[in-house]
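Standup notes
- DV: blocked on the single-chain target, sequence here:
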Amino acid sequence: MERCVRCLNDTTVRNFRLDGDGVCNFCRAYSKIEDKLNDDARMQKLFLDRIERVRGKHAYDAAVGISGGKDSVYVLDQLINVYHLKVKAFTMLNGFFSDEARENVDRLVAEFGVEHEYISFPSDMLQRFYRYTMSKWLVPCIACSYIGYASMINYASKIDAGICIHGRSPEQMLRAYGYDVFTEFVDAGLTDIGELDISATYTKILSDIGKKMDEQLMREIEGILLQDVKENDFREFVPYFLYHRYNEAQIVDYLYKNTSWQPKTDGYNHYDCKIHNASRYIYRCFEGRPHALPEISARVRMGEITREEGMAILASDTVDSSAKKELRELCRYAGVSPTLTLLKAKIYKRIRK
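- DV (later): unblocked, structure below
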């Protein structure tokens, strides 16, 4: 199996290619923006330009998505207590939001004294969208991501927030930079705000995603998810951790010391999603390795960890016994067969080989 000499990506990663020096195309793409990302002064200016451009000019300076996870809670805290923005928080109910996460969200928004709203969607729309992506790509994550992007952009316009700020980690944003839809969000974030055509950029992003879906289904979904974006009145979708250094241990330590954020589960990553392990299990079945490989590679690429540390993390990445139970719940909700889903995954893995 061929593996990149810089990161840990190998031939199991979709779109993976090596050049003559043994460096993968993902590393080459990242190298084009590496200097920009490491210019802390410029990145801070880009962020400040964005928030100062909207401060005091709308009903809210920012809409902030909060899942109850460490990153979104930390971002909300910083926007309120460091940047002193007038924010409204919201939580997307995607059909699999955990009770524990909801308890955390309810407690924390009261603690922060911030306005908050749960965003719900028609259950039949969610189920049909998940069924479609499960049937076509075997996992629900594509549907969930699109619903998230669209509803965040729409919500900012609905409540008249100047921008929408989210807390995706750098490795989530950059794991497939150059080859996934989030690339254009990153490129937009690296552009001076005065030079960015937000409406044209986001119209293109959503259109590109929509081209991969059933046309009739997408028209219906967009009619629900984007009903409040009037005349392409898009508000920028701002990635907080594109502009700020990310250190998971420091974030967790800060939250434990300064807030009541304390998940009861053994692990705090993705505890807000009731079927996260099911998705990891399906991915492992058709990818033949931990689904986290591209994210671990991004961390190596960014110099956050060494290759050896990354290999150790991957070696310890196992799917626990809850995965099959979660898979049954996911398939029941989407109306697909768990047995057929796993069979398709195994067939897909053989075809890729």
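- Follow-up: The chain has two domains: 39-243, 268-352.
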